[in-house]
Amino acid sequence: MTVPYSWQYLPLLMHICFAIGLGIFMLVASWFIGRRRFSKVKQQTYECGMMPQGDARGRFSVRFYMVAMLFILFDVEGVFMIPWAVIYKKLPSLGCSRLFGFWEIVVYLGFVAVGLFYIIRKGILKWSDDRADL
Amino acid sequence: MHLILFILFAGLAIAGALNMLLQKHPINSALSLIVVMTSLAVLYLMLGAEFLAAAQVIVYAGAIMVLFTFVVMLLNAGREERTLGSKASWSVGFPAAVAILAIIASVILKAQGLGNAMLGDKITSTEQVSAVLFKELVLPFEVTSVLVLIAILGAVALARRGDGEERKDRR
Amino acid sequence: MTLDLLHLMPTDLFRILPEVVLTITGVLIMLVDASLPPHVDRRNLGWLAALGTVFALLASQAQLALLQLAERTGFYGTVETSTFSIFFHVLICGIVLVTLLIALDTLPENGHHKGEFFALITFGAVGMCLLTSAVELLVVFIALEISSIATYVLAGYRKENGRGPEAAIKYFLLGSFATGFFLYGIAMVFGATGSTVISEIATRVHTGGHPGLILLALGLMLVGILFKVSAAPFHIWTPDVYEGAPSPVVALMSTAPKAAAFALLIRILYGAFPALQPIWTPLLWLVAVLSMTVGNLAALRQHNVKRMLAYSSIAHAGYLIAAFAGAGNTGITAACFYTAAYASMNVGAFAVVTLISGYEDELPLIKDFRGVLYRTPVLGGALIFFLISLIGIPFTGGFFGKFFSFTTAMGGGAVWLVLIGLLNSGLAAAYYLRLIVSIAQKPEGESPVPPVAQPIGVAVSAALMLAIAATLVLGIAPGEVLKNAAEGAYELMPHSMQMVNSLVFF
Description:
The structure holds 3 protein chains of 3 kinds.
Chain A: H1 10-33, H2 62-87, H3 91-94, H4 98-121
Chain B: H1 2-22, H2 26-46, H3 50-75, H4 84-110, H5 126-133, H6 138-159
Helix pairs in contact in B: 1-2, 2-3
Chain C: H1 5-8, H2 11-15, H3 17-35, H4 43-62, E1 73-74, E2 79-80, H5 83-106, H6 114-133, H7 137-155, H8 163-193, H9 198-206, H10 211-228, H11 237-244, H12 247-253, H13 256-272, H14 277-300, H15 305-322, H16 328-357, H17 372-375, H18 377-391, H19 397-411, H20 415-440, H21 458-476, H22 479-492
Antiparallel strand pairs in C: 1-2
Helix pairs in contact in C: 3-4, 3-6, 4-5, 4-6, 5-6, 5-12, 5-13, 5-16, 5-21, 5-22, 6-7, 6-13, 7-8, 8-10, 8-11, 9-13, 10-13, 11-15, 12-16, 13-16, 14-15, 14-20, 15-16, 15-19, 15-20, 16-18, 16-19, 16-21, 16-22, 18-20, 19-20, 19-21
């Protein structure tokens, strides 16, 4: 094997180059193809078809924060499951039984399930009726 | 090639970090933090830590930055103002930061034989990480889920109004 | 316990049994709390938490059976069961039990997230217990985080006035910074020695390597831990946080996480860096003097009872750290004993303050405490008793704590430290006496102070009795606790550093 380590990331590099290239292409193409005529209405801030009103910098509800916070927590737990999936079949060669590996993740996911049950029952994820009263 | 990549991304990380500190608007700071996080992920990858690099992108550059942005929106934090106190903390904090950097740098540079890593020199695959994580470090792994549980509890307890409490400022 | 747990379950599980019991209790509380309809009072969950804590305490006691085994560590060398860990487990479970009992009777009737409150305390106890038995720095770090996050949240529990959130944010920001230091220290020590197991680190520090890195690591870790025990110069957060946090929470966070952090300090200094003792002894000498002096001088000027007790707790951290100037395992013994004595009297003092001031701190000032002895003699008497113990008058735990700490430091040759400590104790008596005098003064007729209204509940009287009993036992018959502390110290010390005639004060 004389192929350097970094070569296996060549597809990643190509992907990134393609993404950046696509962005540049779209900007440049619209510059050439599109027509530029400005009017007062066109220069206004875009707000979903209605006339813009108020300041964009109002305070947002704490709900957004809760969702982001819970997303991080479950994201982290999800990330930890990748290495488990990678190793599970090879556990016996490490000197641990499959059952051990099974219980490892069952306990772990059990805690996740408790957390999920808790936030659902408290109505944190329910935005329509205000039971959580955020 | 390795050196070029290293200089490129280390430079990006440092530039991003400086920009984060110098920007006056919190959203700009948060966005430059993404640059720092992603550059760090590349640096990890160059050291052969594949899983760490992926986790860095998923957790830090992804999830945590979303949270930062939401917090900025939640607080409606505007442009930072330079007050007398912030100027004073600059004048104390900057030399202190330089001093700490100098101490750590001198200690690390003095310690001989710390070794250096080259791209592709030593690759730690996800499999190797999991072999340690699910055998020797099984206890910290399980305890992490308790940590997550307590974070959920804390967030709910602090963000919600009390059970059965009257809401005074309903909009 | 008559149950032979040793043969009933895997040894590894038995080694973390108290933590497992507490975790199961916490999860149960969470599940029940989430299942109940919103308006149902969650008070009974507190009894569930207390019951779980009692079981955890019994489980720690049962762990004594593990000491017969040759193997002392479990889970691939990440946790260790020893007299030392059991000593702190029992202490922490005791404090948590007392705190839960206080909270049961003093939390407001409804609308206060009671379920979360009890669950957070229980989970926090998991972290604190694990902190004292962990011998691997990653487990130490996660345990530290669990106990810290629980206390950050609990500190901000009174959301109605601005002080609660202020306390929580200050504590959280500074605390996270301190944990960051600690984590950086772990990274450095791993870089220098290639291990995160405490005993491994000790041998590799001994065989040389990177002295600069190791010193840096020790310094960074010390910053992190000294913050947690609120020793000067890392004490700035203490008064504001104690003032803003609810009193039952202060009763917990001024004692249990500190006890765990002291256990960690002992483990890291004597377990991982015994080779560097000539370097860290003078450092701790300085920290002890600073903590005592700064704490006492600032406490003299306080009008708020909780702030005064906050500064007094900084001073007590100083008295305790003075024990580290003592040689070998006598130092550990004295430090362990002081932790127990300080915890029992401080948790008691805050229990009484909760009852007198009220959960919302309606009567926060020293002059508000005027005449308490006449209005509710039981509370006044109990507070005077705890204050006397904090002063360090004989027949209380505080006296023997100080006595052992100072004699150990004396034995270690730190005469100046002891002199400064004694001077400080005298100084401290002044502000404690000021509060005692205020309590014992006859109430004025037109006093604007409303009388202490609430009847003393069953739970909180049990808590008070437990604290009084502990303080008295430690003050009259300290032998048994001291023996356990000495055994723990003996097991903890690397054998090269054992002193044959260890108990100089006998």
